[in-house]
TrEMBL record:
Domain of life: Eukaryota
Molecular function, one GO term: chlorophyllase activity
Protein name (Swiss-Prot/TrEMBL): Chlorophyllase
PANTHER family: CHLOROPHYLLASE-1 (PTHR33428:SF10), CHLOROPHYLLASE-2, CHLOROPLASTIC (PTHR33428)
GO biological process: chlorophyll catabolic process
Length: 319
């Protein structure tokens, strides 16, 4: 059942840059147990405090640092983002065996690293007065990383870290319906995902369009966002950036490069696209981590008047 909320008079602030100053840090791969196998990119508020954590999984062959602008926007609202990168071995394995199993295993390893000894590992790479709140951790991912995030939430790798919410940013299950990446998670059965946490899906309207008639779609029909949403159980939110493409939320240099060689891009402002995606992250997590649903309700009730881009459809399934 689709529920629409009543209009609220409070302003929607999640699409505006937050009040925190943001710092970025790279944690390289190391043989030490103090760092996981995948290299890490961490973005966090500089001000003293304890902040929720988002474990974000990058798309296929996309550098984790190329989400920098999106991460900075989200972190400015008071979130620590931990984004594992990809080793050369992991990249080659993914290319050769056409699988996301390694991505899911790397995500689980990073999650366990975050959770070890009550967040001790993560605390060691953060400033002394900036702490992770492991009671409020979200799992998220883009493209192939979105599929890996769903697979991890479904238990395809073991992790001790407890997630409070899941966000899929234009997730992709594979190149086509008959060649879905392992582990295969789409069943094409409504509400079949056995995921006991709230889910948000952000899709793109141009993701299933090919590039210049030469390249296949980056987010092909049958393996893309509407099919993920179809299998979600309430509570779940669904937003589609109708006029934007699969890579339009990454940093500008990669949007332009991918628009030439990889996938179709939109003609609107990419900064607005990042603000829209970041604002949805913030509003959704405020609702399900901190019981403050004002911004999320406004987005669902009046997306055309509050969002920086066109969002259509916008759905909120509540239990």
């Amino acid at each position: 059942m689709v529920l629409y909320t009543e209009s609220l008079t409070k302003p929607t602030r999640s699409f505006d840059k937050g009040s925190y100053t943001v710092e970025k840090k790279r944690v390289p791969k190391s043989s030490s147990s103090a760092t996981p196998n995948p290299p890490l990119y961490i973005v966090y508020p500089k001000e003293k405090g304890t902040y929720p954590v988002i474990l974000f999984l990058h798309g296929f062959s996309i550098p984790n640092t190329s989400y920098s602008d999106l991460f900075e926007f989200i972190a400015s609202h008071g979130y620590i983002i931990v984004a594992p990168g990809q080793t050369l071995f992991g990249l080659l394995t993914g290319l050769c065996v056409c699988s996301a199993v390694g991505d899911v295993d790397d995500a689980a390893e990073t999650a366990n690293w975050i959770d070890k000894n009550g967040g001790e590992n993560l605390q060691l790479v953060l400033p002394q007065d900036v702490s992770p709140d492991l009671e409020n951790v979200a799992l998220a991912g883009h493209s192939k990383g979105g599929k890996a995030a769903f697979a991890l939430a479904l238990g395809h790798a073991n992790t001790s870290l407890k997630f409070k919410a899941l966000i899929g940013l234009d997730p992709v299950a594979g190149p086509n319906t008959s060649n879905r990446l392992e582990p295969k998670i789409l069943n094409y059965i409504p509400h079949s995902f056995n995921i006991p946490i709230p889910i948000a899906l952000i899709g793109t309207g141009l993701g299933d369009d090919g590039c210049c008639g030469c390249f296949p779609p980056a987010a092909p029909w049958g393996c893309n966002h509407p099919f993920f949403f179809n299998e979600c159980k309430p509570p779940a939110c669904y937003f589609v950036a109708r006029d934007f493409g699969h890579m339009d939320m990454v940093d500008d240099w990669l949007v332009r490069l991918s628009g030439i060689f990889v996938c179709k891009t939109g003609k609107g402002s990419y900064d607005d696209m990042r603000r829209a995606c970041g604002g949805i992250f913030v509003a959704f997590l405020k609702a399900y981590m901190f019981d403050d649903a004002d911004d999320l309700s406004n987005m669902v009730d009046s997306p055309g008047s509050v969002a920086p881009i066109k969002l259509d459809p916008v759905l909120w399934l509540q239990s």
